[in-house]
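user: can you give me the structure for this one chain? tokens are fine.
assistant: on it. calling the predictor now.
[tool input]
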Amino acid sequence: MDNDTDMSYKLDKWNSDLARGLIPNNVILSLYIITGFMGNSIVILIYGFKMKGNKEERYFIPFLATADLWASLVCASFGIALNLMQAQFNNTHLCKAWWFFAAFTTFCSASILLIIAVHRYLKVCRPLEGQMTLKWKRFALCLALALAFTLSVPMTHFYGSVPFPNEEEGIVGQRCSRLKSTNKTGSLIFGGIFVLVTVVVIISLISLYSRIGYTIITHFKYPKRTAKPKSNIDTAGNSTTADNSQVVHSSSDNQLSETETGMHSVETDNTELSGVVQSTASTEKTSGVKRTPNSTMNGKAIVFKSSAKRRKEQTNKKVVHKFTLLFMLITVIFLVCYIPKVIIMLLEARNPRFWEEFSDFARPGILFVYRMYIINSITNPIIYAFLDNQFSTEMKKMVRICK
């Protein structure tokens, strides 16, 4: 009995020493929880309920914020629990459940980022082809949930409470980590599938956004020039020549604008079209030139493509490109935060004693790098605040109301 009491005392002391060395990590994880909860809650509130009008460019943001909210809460709280019970995590069912939810939320976030990349690719690089309708967007989100669930379920089989020996003190604790007693072949297969999915996601994100970035750079470097309509018509022949060139530009630009942004004002076009009739009649009276049906239709096309409409289209293109750059930045941060975790998980799978071989001094640094992926879930609201003017405006309104 005295021996058991002594062993228990040594185990408690060892666990306390390990937890004390991880206090800075707990402080950082607590900040992750606070920042992730507040930031993503504001994003969900503003994008989901406050913003009115066309939400085409912002459709996926509330769903991504929801995944990031749960990821920051679950993963950061799980990390604190692991830090406090480095050698005394005896509840294997709680360990399995925590691993499942941590994996599920992170996989959801990664899957939604991939969907967003495909959505941006279609809008920027394939504007005249089929786009993601509301039905396909919902289907893609359901598919992301199903994929995340499928990849997370095996975590309950390969992770749990494992022995954590202290050879110097002659004691053995329990920590929540990858199980050493599971089938090695099955573990390697799961690890291979996990690595394959991760590599596919990373390569897909890099490939899609590389193409998107090239298209945007090309657009700004070589902008399309749109001819301005002429107000004075000298002869019917000159009018036809100028109008035909303008019709080509009008048709091309109209298709691009409507496909890219999904916004097209019929009322504005009718107003502009009515102005064509008056302008044409006035010109015929003053100049005495008889307008043919073809030249009249060409004149309509000229005024139909007014300077105000062109400015609107250019603004819409800038909105598309701005949101594309926003999502590109989010994806870059995702890759920077997740790649170290994947590398450490691969090393952990190859070496069953990976965590045991680190000293108490080196372990906090490795754990910080291992949990850097949580940063991805708390930085997105900051990016929105700096790059989305409408989000910044709504957030300022909320601050003034709270005061």
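assistant: here you go. Residues 2-220+330-402 form a domain with the Rhopdopsin 7-helix transmembrane proteins fold (CATH 1.20.1070.10). Confidence is low (pLDDT under 50) at residues 225-291.
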